[in-house]
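hey
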């Protein structure tokens, strides 16, 4: 099939490349000339394991192309995926849908035959209705169909999630589009993915409800971790004990910093905002948002306690600063609050992240980027393991530090407390 992906961000690029790898002809479109030129050269704008190899392979085989010409790309395609950003609106909790609606207007100018218009972006309930209205102003309804097909890609594991999904959700109001899309996804369905067919509004809500529930699990175990720290219990034991219950499941039950990234913070706010418009109080999700917002404050207080309120002039090293491992995404990472806080308190901070230097910290005093784990550790009083990169799991701190008073604050519980203590260092974890 001939596909057009509008937007070469995380969702658009990963989905486009994977569809091409399944044998489809895919054009990825973006208005950013520089980004498109770089993609043609094999320069990838995001960090995602395995993505570069797939881009090079499918571009070489001419199943994948990149363009800035939206009009021509739409005309050449049978199915058009809208993969633009839906960030939180400034001074509001609602989703900013301006990019979605702008693209809809452009699509309406370029329909030359029947096309399926798919909202791949995460959008609130009724967004598809509005997109349909916008296109209908210029095009007869029999020449297009608007569908919701939410993505469920985890950063760092996106390619695997695309190829081996739990489910494929299609929200459409006509049988013709349903049959075409079931055929498009047939290679994944044959591998065991469940094909879920709903109406358009239901598909939109499935995505938001999924993210809100996962955010709730993370927030829940973080609150239990707070309780464990007061009672001398290891939260890892609790996670295992409750996670083995099939009704609960073990995933997203790892205590740590506040949830962050491109999805959970904005999507929990957006579903609450949409529900408010429909006069529905989502009190549980509101509590989750509030709890997550104060999570960074709790971690700040614990750093103060660990250092006995003597933060000034302390040499603190951060291992990892992204919101999770295997991604370069800094959006809503806890480090964006914790590092400025400690800098303001007078700490001397170094950080190392496998994805490199972060411009977010460039203007902060006393904050420097280290080019290696070793450089980051040497001379430090406190090591904060902020992100669970595999690179950190086998570190021998004794090899890099002669400071007998070195403190390890393991925010991801990747180390055994006994192991660190045997090295001769002080250890603090989350919920331990």
């Amino acid at each position: 099939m001939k596909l057009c992906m509008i937007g070469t961000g995380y969702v658009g690029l990963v989905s486009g490349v994977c569809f091409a790898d399944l044998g489809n002809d895919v054009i990825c479109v973006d208005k950013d000339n520089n980004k498109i030129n770089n993609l043609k050269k094999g320069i990838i704008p995001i960090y995602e394991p395995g993505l570069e190899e797939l881009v090079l392979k499918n571009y070489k085989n001419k199943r994948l192309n990149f363009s800035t010409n939206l009009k021509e790309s739409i005309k050449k395609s049978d199915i058009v995926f809208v993969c633009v950003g839906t960030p939180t609106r400034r001074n509001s909790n609602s989703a900013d849908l301006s990019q979605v609606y702008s693209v809809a207007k452009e699509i309406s100018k370029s329909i030359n035959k029947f096309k399926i218009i798919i909202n791949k972006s995460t959008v609130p309930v009724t967004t598809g209705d509005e997109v349909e209205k916008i296109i209908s102003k210029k095009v007869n309804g029999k020449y297009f169909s608007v569908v919701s097909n939410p993505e469920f890609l985890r950063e760092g594991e996106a390619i695997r999630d695309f190829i081996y999904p739990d489910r494929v959700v299609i929200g459409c109001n006509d049988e013709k589009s349903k049959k075409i899309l079931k055929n498009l996804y047939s290679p994944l369905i044959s591998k065991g993915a469940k094909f879920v067919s709903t109406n358009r509004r239901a598909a939109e809500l499935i995505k938001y409800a999924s993210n809100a529930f996962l955010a709730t699990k993370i927030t829940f175990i973080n609150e239990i971790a707070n309780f464990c720290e007061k009672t001398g219990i290891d939260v890892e034991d609790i996670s295992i004990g409750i996670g083995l219950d099939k009704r609960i499941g073990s995933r997203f039950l790892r205590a740590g910093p506040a949830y962050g990234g491109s999805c959970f913070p904005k999507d929990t706010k957006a579903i609450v905002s949409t529900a408010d418009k429909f006069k529905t109080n989502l009190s549980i999700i509101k509590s989750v948002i509030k709890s997550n917002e104060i999570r960074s404050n709790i971690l700040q207080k614990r750093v103060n306690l660990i250092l006995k309120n003597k933060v000034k002039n302390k040499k603190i090293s951060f291992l990892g600063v992204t919101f999770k491992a295997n991604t370069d995404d800094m959006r809503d990472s806890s480090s964006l609050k914790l590092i400025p806080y400690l800098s303001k308190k007078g700490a001397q901070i170094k950080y190392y992240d496998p994805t490199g230097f972060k411009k977010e910290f460039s203007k902060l005093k006393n904050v420097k980027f280290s080019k290696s784990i070793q450089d980051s550790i040497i001379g430090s009083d406190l090591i904060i393991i902020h992100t669970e990169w595999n690179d950190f799991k086998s570190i021998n701190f004794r090899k890099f530090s002669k400071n007998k008073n070195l403190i390890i604050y393991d925010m991801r519980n990747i180390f055994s407390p006994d192991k660190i203590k045997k090295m001769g260092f002080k250890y603090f974890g989350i919920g331990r």
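The longest strand covers residues 2-6. DSSP finds 17 helices and 14 strands in the chain.
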